[in-house]
Specification:
By secondary structure, the chain is an all-alpha fold. Helices cover 80% and strands 0% of the residues. The longest helix is centred in the N-terminal third of the chain and has 59 residues. The chain starts with 5 loop residues before the first helix and ends in a 5-residue tail after the last helix.
Length: 168
C-alpha cells in the first residue's frame, strides 16, 4: 500500500487574490451559462410538447362536446331543441378550433426563432463544460453530466425544430 501525502496533492500553489478572482469568475460564469442552457432546454421541450398537447386537448374537448350534445339530443328525443337555445351549442366547435389556430399561429412565430436559440444554447453548454473542466469547483462533475444530457436533448430539439418549419 502506497502512502500518499494529501497536502501535496491538494496544493495548487500559493493562494492569491488573482487565483481566487479567477476561480470565482470561472465558477460564476459557468453557472450562468449552465442556467441559460437549462432554461433553453426546458423551453425547447415545452414548445415542442405544446403543439401536441394543444391539438390533443382541442380534439378531446371537441369529442366530449360532441358526445354531450348527441347524448342530450337522444335522451330528450330532440325536445330540448324546441324549448331552449340548446341548438346554439353546436356552433361552439368553430370558436374552439379558431382559438386553437390562433394559439398555434403564436407558437409558430416563436418556433421560427427556437432553432437558433437551441444552437446558441449548445454553444453555451460547450463553453460552460469547458469552463467547469478548467475550474476547481468540487461540484463540477454533476453539472457537466447534466449539461451533457442537455446537449443531447438540445440536439434532438434543434433537429426537430428545423425539420418542421423552424428557422427563419
Amino acid at each position: 500500500m502506497k502512502v500518499v501525502n494529501l497536502d501535496l496533492k491538494k496544493s495548487y500553489g500559493e493562494i492569491s487574490l488573482q487565483t481566487v478572482e479567477k476561480y470565482m469568475v470561472l465558477n460564476n460564469f459557468s453557472n450562468v451559462l449552465a442556467s441559460l442552457v437549462f432554461a433553453a432546454t426546458f423551453f425547447s421541450i415545452a414548445l415542442i410538447v405544446s403543439y401536441f398537447l394543444l391539438w390533443l386537448t382541442t380534439a378531446i374537448l371537441a369529442v366530449c362536446l360532441f358526445c354531450v350534445l348527441i347524448f342530450a339530443t337522444l335522451v330528450t328525443l330532440g325536445v330540448i331543441y324546441a324549448v331552449s337555445d340548446f341548438g346554439k351549442a353546436w356552433s361552439w366547435f368553430g370558436p374552439m378550433f379558431e382559438s386553437s389556430k390562433t394559439i398555434t399561429e403564436f407558437l409558430e412565430k416563436i418556433y421560427l426563432v427556437m432553432p437558433y436559440v437551441g444552437i446558441a444554447a449548445l454553444a453555451a453548454a460547450a463553453l460552460s463544460i469547458a469552463l467547469l473542466a478548467k475550474s476547481q469547483n468540487e461540484n463540477k462533475v454533476a453539472k457537466i453530466v447534466w449539461l451533457s444530457i442537455s446537449i443531447v436533448i438540445l440536439v434532438f430539439c434543434v433537429i426537430f425544430e428545423f425539420s418542421f418549419k423552424g428557422g427563419l
